[in-house]
Amino acid sequence: MINNIDRLIKEIICGGAKSSGKTEKTDRGSVCMPGQELLVKEIMDRGLCSSCGMCVGLCPYIKTAGDRVRAIYPCGIEEGACYGVCPKTSLDISEMDMFVHGREREDHALGIYSGIYYARATARADGAQYGGITTALIGLALREGLISSAILTGGDIMNPRPVLAATPGEVNSCAGSKYTGVPTLLELNRAAGRGLTGIGLVGRPCQVAAVRKLQRGKLPPERTYSDRLVGLMLGLFCFWSLSSELYGFLARETKGEEIIKMDIPLEGPGVLTKTGSRRWRVDEIRPFINKSCNYCFDSTSEWADLSVGSTEQDPGWNTLLVRSGQGRDLVELAADRGVLEIKDYPAGRLPVLRKAALNKKMRVLALAEKEPGNGGCPAIPDKYLREMNVQWGGINR
Protein backbone atom coordinates (compact mmCIF):
# COMPACT_ATOMS: atom_id res chain seq x y z
CA MET A 1 0.00 0.00 0.00
CA ILE A 2 1.33 3.43 -0.96
CA ASN A 3 1.86 5.67 2.04
CA ASN A 4 1.18 9.41 2.04
CA ILE A 5 4.82 10.34 1.43
CA ASP A 6 5.00 8.09 -1.63
CA ARG A 7 1.75 9.58 -2.91
CA LEU A 8 3.04 13.12 -2.46
CA ILE A 9 6.29 12.33 -4.28
CA LYS A 10 4.36 10.69 -7.08
CA GLU A 11 2.08 13.68 -7.60
CA ILE A 12 4.92 16.20 -7.55
CA ILE A 13 7.09 14.26 -9.99
CA CYS A 14 4.49 12.85 -12.34
CA GLY A 15 2.33 15.90 -12.57
CA GLY A 16 -0.65 15.58 -10.29
CA ALA A 17 -4.04 14.01 -10.67
CA LYS A 18 -5.30 11.76 -13.41
CA SER A 19 -6.60 13.16 -16.64
CA SER A 20 -8.21 11.84 -19.77
CA GLY A 21 -4.77 10.77 -21.01
CA LYS A 22 -5.07 13.02 -24.07
CA THR A 23 -2.45 15.59 -25.01
CA GLU A 24 -3.50 19.00 -23.74
CA LYS A 25 -2.11 22.50 -23.73
CA THR A 26 -1.37 23.93 -20.29
CA ASP A 27 -1.60 27.56 -19.13
CA ARG A 28 2.18 27.77 -19.49
CA GLY A 29 2.00 26.74 -23.12
CA SER A 30 3.71 23.41 -22.58
CA VAL A 31 2.19 20.10 -23.56
CA CYS A 32 1.16 17.43 -21.08
CA MET A 33 1.89 13.96 -22.37
CA PRO A 34 0.56 10.55 -21.38
CA GLY A 35 2.30 8.81 -18.51
CA GLN A 36 3.86 5.62 -17.33
CA GLU A 37 1.15 3.24 -18.54
CA LEU A 38 1.63 4.19 -22.19
CA LEU A 39 5.41 4.37 -21.81
CA VAL A 40 5.41 0.77 -20.63
CA LYS A 41 2.97 -0.36 -23.31
CA GLU A 42 4.49 1.46 -26.30
CA ILE A 43 8.17 1.38 -25.43
CA MET A 44 9.28 -0.87 -22.58
CA ASP A 45 7.10 -3.90 -23.31
CA ARG A 46 8.06 -3.78 -26.99
CA GLY A 47 11.77 -3.75 -26.23
CA LEU A 48 12.22 -0.24 -27.63
CA CYS A 49 13.75 1.40 -24.55
CA SER A 50 17.24 2.65 -25.41
CA SER A 51 18.34 2.86 -21.75
CA CYS A 52 19.03 6.59 -21.95
CA GLY A 53 18.14 6.97 -18.26
CA MET A 54 16.13 10.17 -18.58
CA CYS A 55 12.95 8.79 -17.01
CA VAL A 56 14.91 7.32 -14.09
CA GLY A 57 14.71 9.90 -11.33
CA LEU A 58 11.76 11.72 -12.86
CA CYS A 59 9.54 8.98 -11.48
CA PRO A 60 10.15 7.11 -8.19
CA TYR A 61 8.64 3.98 -9.75
CA ILE A 62 11.06 3.66 -12.66
CA LYS A 63 14.39 2.07 -11.77
CA THR A 64 17.48 0.76 -13.52
CA ALA A 65 19.67 -2.28 -13.05
CA GLY A 66 22.68 -2.18 -15.32
CA ASP A 67 21.37 -1.31 -18.77
CA ARG A 68 17.78 -2.33 -17.97
CA VAL A 69 15.19 0.36 -17.26
CA ARG A 70 11.86 -0.83 -15.91
CA ALA A 71 8.72 0.47 -14.20
CA ILE A 72 8.64 -1.43 -10.92
CA TYR A 73 5.22 -0.19 -9.78
CA PRO A 74 2.24 1.27 -11.65
CA CYS A 75 1.98 4.90 -10.58
CA GLY A 76 -1.54 5.37 -11.96
CA ILE A 77 -0.80 8.82 -13.36
CA GLU A 78 -1.97 9.22 -16.95
CA GLU A 79 -0.04 12.43 -17.61
CA GLY A 80 3.57 12.35 -16.53
CA ALA A 81 7.10 13.38 -17.20
CA CYS A 82 8.43 9.97 -18.18
CA TYR A 83 6.50 9.67 -21.45
CA GLY A 84 7.13 13.27 -22.51
CA VAL A 85 10.93 13.12 -22.33
CA CYS A 86 11.43 9.61 -23.71
CA PRO A 87 13.41 9.88 -26.97
CA LYS A 88 11.31 7.07 -28.47
CA THR A 89 7.94 8.84 -28.13
CA SER A 90 6.41 11.69 -30.14
CA LEU A 91 9.60 12.93 -31.78
CA ASP A 92 9.11 15.18 -34.81
CA ILE A 93 12.35 15.72 -36.70
CA SER A 94 11.50 19.07 -38.28
CA GLU A 95 10.18 20.49 -35.00
CA MET A 96 13.38 19.45 -33.25
CA ASP A 97 15.51 21.02 -36.00
CA MET A 98 13.68 24.31 -35.51
CA PHE A 99 13.91 24.16 -31.72
CA VAL A 100 17.63 23.37 -31.60
CA HIS A 101 19.03 25.04 -34.72
CA GLY A 102 16.34 27.53 -35.70
CA ARG A 103 15.99 26.21 -39.24
CA GLU A 104 15.16 23.13 -41.25
CA ARG A 105 17.89 20.88 -42.55
CA GLU A 106 19.30 20.71 -46.05
CA ASP A 107 21.56 17.72 -45.47
CA HIS A 108 19.29 14.76 -44.72
CA ALA A 109 22.20 12.47 -43.97
CA LEU A 110 24.00 14.36 -41.22
CA GLY A 111 21.52 17.05 -40.21
CA ILE A 112 22.46 20.67 -39.58
CA TYR A 113 26.13 21.53 -39.09
CA SER A 114 28.47 24.41 -39.87
CA GLY A 115 31.73 22.48 -40.21
CA ILE A 116 33.19 18.99 -40.38
CA TYR A 117 36.82 18.19 -39.55
CA TYR A 118 39.39 15.63 -38.55
CA ALA A 119 40.61 16.37 -35.03
CA ARG A 120 42.81 14.85 -32.35
CA ALA A 121 43.90 15.80 -28.86
CA THR A 122 47.47 16.98 -28.49
CA ALA A 123 47.65 15.16 -25.15
CA ARG A 124 45.46 12.05 -25.04
CA ALA A 125 44.14 10.72 -21.75
CA ASP A 126 45.03 7.13 -20.90
CA GLY A 127 42.50 4.82 -22.51
CA ALA A 128 41.08 7.51 -24.83
CA GLN A 129 39.51 6.24 -28.05
CA TYR A 130 40.83 7.28 -31.47
CA GLY A 131 41.90 10.94 -31.33
CA GLY A 132 40.71 11.41 -27.76
CA ILE A 133 38.89 14.67 -28.47
CA THR A 134 35.78 13.92 -26.41
CA THR A 135 37.78 13.73 -23.19
CA ALA A 136 39.93 16.70 -24.21
CA LEU A 137 36.97 18.97 -25.00
CA ILE A 138 35.02 18.12 -21.85
CA GLY A 139 38.16 18.59 -19.75
CA LEU A 140 38.82 21.99 -21.33
CA ALA A 141 35.21 23.12 -20.82
CA LEU A 142 35.44 22.14 -17.16
CA ARG A 143 38.80 23.88 -16.58
CA GLU A 144 37.55 27.06 -18.25
CA GLY A 145 34.35 27.14 -16.19
CA LEU A 146 32.14 26.69 -19.26
CA ILE A 147 30.47 23.77 -17.49
CA SER A 148 30.20 22.96 -13.79
CA SER A 149 30.48 19.18 -14.15
CA ALA A 150 30.00 16.50 -16.78
CA ILE A 151 27.80 13.43 -17.12
CA LEU A 152 29.89 10.63 -18.59
CA THR A 153 30.15 6.86 -18.81
CA GLY A 154 32.77 5.57 -16.40
CA GLY A 155 33.87 2.13 -15.32
CA ASP A 156 35.30 -0.31 -17.84
CA ILE A 157 34.11 -2.36 -20.81
CA MET A 158 32.59 -5.07 -18.63
CA ASN A 159 31.27 -2.78 -15.90
CA PRO A 160 30.29 0.63 -17.32
CA ARG A 161 28.42 3.03 -15.06
CA PRO A 162 27.02 6.58 -15.03
CA VAL A 163 29.38 9.21 -13.61
CA LEU A 164 28.99 12.87 -12.70
CA ALA A 165 32.55 14.14 -13.07
CA ALA A 166 33.47 17.35 -11.24
CA THR A 167 37.24 17.52 -11.92
CA PRO A 168 39.46 17.06 -14.99
CA GLY A 169 40.94 13.98 -13.32
CA GLU A 170 37.49 12.41 -13.02
CA VAL A 171 36.86 13.23 -16.68
CA ASN A 172 40.09 11.53 -17.74
CA SER A 173 39.21 8.43 -15.74
CA CYS A 174 36.14 7.97 -17.96
CA ALA A 175 38.12 8.00 -21.22
CA GLY A 176 37.40 5.24 -23.71
CA SER A 177 34.28 3.98 -25.48
CA LYS A 178 31.84 1.58 -23.88
CA TYR A 179 29.55 -0.15 -26.32
CA THR A 180 26.54 -1.06 -24.18
CA GLY A 181 23.62 1.25 -23.45
CA VAL A 182 24.39 2.92 -20.12
CA PRO A 183 21.54 5.04 -18.60
CA THR A 184 23.78 7.97 -17.73
CA LEU A 185 20.98 10.56 -17.82
CA LEU A 186 19.80 9.38 -14.44
CA GLU A 187 22.70 11.50 -13.16
CA LEU A 188 21.17 14.56 -14.84
CA ASN A 189 18.04 14.21 -12.75
CA ARG A 190 20.08 13.71 -9.58
CA ALA A 191 22.15 16.79 -10.38
CA ALA A 192 19.01 18.84 -11.04
CA GLY A 193 17.68 17.77 -7.66
CA ARG A 194 20.84 19.18 -6.08
CA GLY A 195 20.35 22.51 -7.86
CA LEU A 196 23.32 22.13 -10.22
CA THR A 197 23.37 24.06 -13.50
CA GLY A 198 25.73 24.38 -16.43
CA ILE A 199 26.19 20.61 -16.73
CA GLY A 200 28.02 19.14 -19.69
CA LEU A 201 27.14 15.73 -21.00
CA VAL A 202 28.44 13.17 -23.45
CA GLY A 203 25.75 10.95 -24.85
CA ARG A 204 24.38 8.77 -27.59
CA PRO A 205 21.94 10.27 -30.13
CA CYS A 206 18.93 9.01 -28.14
CA GLN A 207 20.27 10.71 -25.02
CA VAL A 208 20.80 14.00 -26.85
CA ALA A 209 17.21 13.79 -28.11
CA ALA A 210 15.91 13.09 -24.60
CA VAL A 211 17.64 16.17 -23.18
CA ARG A 212 16.34 18.34 -26.02
CA LYS A 213 12.81 17.11 -25.29
CA LEU A 214 13.37 18.03 -21.65
CA GLN A 215 14.49 21.50 -22.70
CA ARG A 216 11.43 21.88 -24.91
CA GLY A 217 9.28 21.60 -21.81
CA LYS A 218 7.94 18.07 -22.24
CA LEU A 219 7.04 18.04 -18.55
CA PRO A 220 3.92 18.70 -16.49
CA PRO A 221 3.68 22.32 -15.29
CA GLU A 222 4.43 21.25 -11.72
CA ARG A 223 7.88 19.97 -12.75
CA THR A 224 10.31 22.47 -14.26
CA TYR A 225 14.06 22.56 -14.67
CA SER A 226 16.33 25.56 -14.97
CA ASP A 227 17.01 26.73 -18.52
CA ARG A 228 20.66 26.63 -17.50
CA LEU A 229 20.60 23.00 -16.38
CA VAL A 230 22.62 21.80 -19.38
CA GLY A 231 25.62 23.83 -20.48
CA LEU A 232 27.01 21.68 -23.30
CA MET A 233 25.97 18.58 -25.22
CA LEU A 234 28.61 16.52 -26.95
CA GLY A 235 26.98 13.75 -28.97
CA LEU A 236 28.59 10.54 -30.14
CA PHE A 237 28.24 8.76 -33.45
CA CYS A 238 26.25 5.62 -32.73
CA PHE A 239 24.86 3.19 -35.29
CA TRP A 240 23.87 0.74 -32.55
CA SER A 241 24.56 -0.12 -28.93
CA LEU A 242 24.84 -3.58 -27.42
CA SER A 243 22.94 -5.25 -24.62
CA SER A 244 24.56 -6.39 -21.38
CA GLU A 245 24.44 -9.99 -22.65
CA LEU A 246 27.60 -9.00 -24.51
CA TYR A 247 29.55 -9.27 -21.24
CA GLY A 248 28.95 -12.99 -20.99
CA PHE A 249 30.02 -13.46 -24.61
CA LEU A 250 33.25 -11.50 -24.07
CA ALA A 251 34.02 -13.35 -20.83
CA ARG A 252 33.65 -16.71 -22.58
CA GLU A 253 35.61 -15.69 -25.65
CA THR A 254 38.52 -14.19 -23.69
CA LYS A 255 38.40 -16.87 -20.96
CA GLY A 256 37.85 -14.23 -18.33
CA GLU A 257 40.91 -12.10 -19.16
CA GLU A 258 40.81 -8.42 -18.26
CA ILE A 259 39.73 -6.39 -21.29
CA ILE A 260 41.76 -3.23 -21.67
CA LYS A 261 40.02 -1.78 -24.71
CA MET A 262 37.27 -2.56 -27.20
CA ASP A 263 36.73 -1.23 -30.70
CA ILE A 264 34.31 -1.90 -33.56
CA PRO A 265 36.03 -0.87 -36.82
CA LEU A 266 34.93 -1.89 -40.32
CA GLU A 267 36.86 -5.15 -40.18
CA GLY A 268 34.86 -6.28 -37.16
CA PRO A 269 34.65 -5.89 -33.37
CA GLY A 270 37.72 -6.63 -31.32
CA VAL A 271 39.18 -6.39 -27.84
CA LEU A 272 42.64 -5.91 -26.42
CA THR A 273 43.63 -7.88 -23.31
CA LYS A 274 46.89 -8.02 -21.38
CA THR A 275 47.97 -11.06 -23.37
CA GLY A 276 46.91 -10.08 -26.85
CA SER A 277 43.92 -9.23 -29.03
CA ARG A 278 40.86 -10.98 -30.36
CA ARG A 279 38.53 -10.05 -33.23
CA TRP A 280 35.15 -11.33 -34.43
CA ARG A 281 32.83 -10.85 -37.37
CA VAL A 282 30.05 -8.31 -36.92
CA ASP A 283 27.51 -11.12 -37.38
CA GLU A 284 28.84 -12.78 -34.22
CA ILE A 285 27.80 -9.85 -32.03
CA ARG A 286 24.71 -8.88 -34.03
CA PRO A 287 22.41 -10.83 -31.64
CA PHE A 288 23.43 -8.39 -28.89
CA ILE A 289 22.32 -5.24 -30.76
CA ASN A 290 19.52 -3.53 -28.86
CA LYS A 291 16.17 -3.70 -30.66
CA SER A 292 15.57 0.01 -30.13
CA CYS A 293 18.61 0.78 -32.30
CA ASN A 294 16.84 -0.73 -35.31
CA TYR A 295 14.28 2.09 -35.05
CA CYS A 296 16.80 4.89 -34.49
CA PHE A 297 16.96 7.48 -37.24
CA ASP A 298 19.94 9.44 -35.95
CA SER A 299 23.44 7.99 -36.08
CA THR A 300 25.45 11.22 -35.66
CA SER A 301 23.74 13.03 -32.74
CA GLU A 302 22.13 15.63 -34.97
CA TRP A 303 20.88 17.88 -32.14
CA ALA A 304 24.10 18.09 -30.10
CA ASP A 305 26.39 21.12 -29.94
CA LEU A 306 29.25 18.97 -31.22
CA SER A 307 29.22 15.44 -32.65
CA VAL A 308 32.20 13.10 -32.45
CA GLY A 309 32.91 9.77 -34.12
CA SER A 310 35.69 7.70 -35.59
CA THR A 311 37.10 8.42 -39.04
CA GLU A 312 36.90 4.78 -40.25
CA GLN A 313 40.19 5.62 -41.96
CA ASP A 314 42.82 6.79 -39.49
CA PRO A 315 42.54 5.43 -35.91
CA GLY A 316 44.55 8.35 -34.55
CA TRP A 317 41.89 10.93 -35.45
CA ASN A 318 38.22 11.67 -34.76
CA THR A 319 35.53 13.02 -37.03
CA LEU A 320 34.17 16.27 -35.56
CA LEU A 321 30.91 17.92 -36.60
CA VAL A 322 30.31 21.46 -35.34
CA ARG A 323 26.58 22.09 -35.03
CA SER A 324 25.97 25.10 -32.76
CA GLY A 325 27.62 28.43 -32.07
CA GLN A 326 28.44 27.21 -28.59
CA GLY A 327 30.15 24.18 -30.08
CA ARG A 328 32.09 26.36 -32.51
CA ASP A 329 33.31 28.58 -29.65
CA LEU A 330 34.61 25.58 -27.71
CA VAL A 331 36.43 24.12 -30.73
CA GLU A 332 38.06 27.46 -31.50
CA LEU A 333 39.13 27.80 -27.88
CA ALA A 334 40.58 24.28 -27.96
CA ALA A 335 42.55 25.11 -31.10
CA ASP A 336 43.81 28.42 -29.65
CA ARG A 337 44.92 26.72 -26.42
CA GLY A 338 46.66 23.92 -28.31
CA VAL A 339 44.30 21.31 -26.89
CA LEU A 340 43.21 20.06 -30.31
CA GLU A 341 44.89 19.65 -33.66
CA ILE A 342 42.34 20.17 -36.43
CA LYS A 343 42.49 19.64 -40.17
CA ASP A 344 40.07 19.66 -43.08
CA TYR A 345 37.81 16.67 -43.51
CA PRO A 346 38.94 14.73 -46.61
CA ALA A 347 36.56 15.48 -49.48
CA GLY A 348 36.54 11.85 -50.54
CA ARG A 349 35.36 10.67 -47.12
CA LEU A 350 32.24 12.86 -46.88
CA PRO A 351 30.19 10.80 -49.39
CA VAL A 352 31.16 7.65 -47.44
CA LEU A 353 29.92 9.10 -44.15
CA ARG A 354 26.75 10.46 -45.73
CA LYS A 355 25.99 7.12 -47.35
CA ALA A 356 26.39 5.27 -44.04
CA ALA A 357 24.07 7.71 -42.25
CA LEU A 358 21.45 7.65 -45.02
CA ASN A 359 21.55 3.87 -45.28
CA LYS A 360 20.72 3.71 -41.57
CA LYS A 361 17.71 5.99 -42.07
CA MET A 362 16.46 4.05 -45.07
CA ARG A 363 16.65 0.78 -43.13
CA VAL A 364 14.35 2.30 -40.51
CA LEU A 365 11.90 3.42 -43.18
CA ALA A 366 11.93 -0.05 -44.71
CA LEU A 367 10.85 -1.79 -41.49
CA ALA A 368 7.57 -3.54 -42.12
CA GLU A 369 6.38 -2.87 -38.57
CA LYS A 370 7.43 0.77 -38.41
CA GLU A 371 4.91 3.28 -37.09
CA PRO A 372 6.15 6.78 -38.00
CA GLY A 373 5.74 9.18 -35.12
CA ASN A 374 4.82 6.53 -32.61
CA GLY A 375 6.29 3.55 -30.78
CA GLY A 376 9.97 4.13 -31.42
CA CYS A 377 9.86 5.74 -34.88
CA PRO A 378 10.17 9.52 -35.36
CA ALA A 379 7.66 11.61 -37.28
CA ILE A 380 9.18 12.72 -40.58
CA PRO A 381 7.57 15.43 -42.76
CA ASP A 382 6.78 14.44 -46.33
CA LYS A 383 9.15 17.05 -47.73
CA TYR A 384 11.95 15.60 -45.59
CA LEU A 385 11.14 12.13 -46.90
CA ARG A 386 11.15 13.30 -50.52
CA GLU A 387 14.48 15.09 -50.22
CA MET A 388 15.99 12.22 -48.26
CA ASN A 389 15.17 9.82 -51.07
CA VAL A 390 16.71 12.18 -53.60
CA GLN A 391 19.94 12.50 -51.59
CA TRP A 392 20.11 8.78 -50.86
CA GLY A 393 19.55 7.92 -54.53
CA GLY A 394 22.26 10.32 -55.56
CA ILE A 395 24.73 8.70 -53.19
CA ASN A 396 23.96 5.18 -54.38
CA ARG A 397 24.00 5.79 -58.12
Automatic annotation (TrEMBL):
4Fe-4S ferredoxin-type domain sequence ranges: 40-68
Coiled coil, from the record: none
UniProt keyword annotations, A-Z: Iron, Iron-sulfur, Metal-binding
A molecular function GO annotation: iron-sulfur cluster binding
Keyword Iron-sulfur tagged: yes
UniProt-listed Gene3D superfamilies: 3.30.70.20
Protein name: Coenzyme F420 hydrogenase beta subunit
Species per Swiss-Prot/TrEMBL record: Desulfocucumis palustris
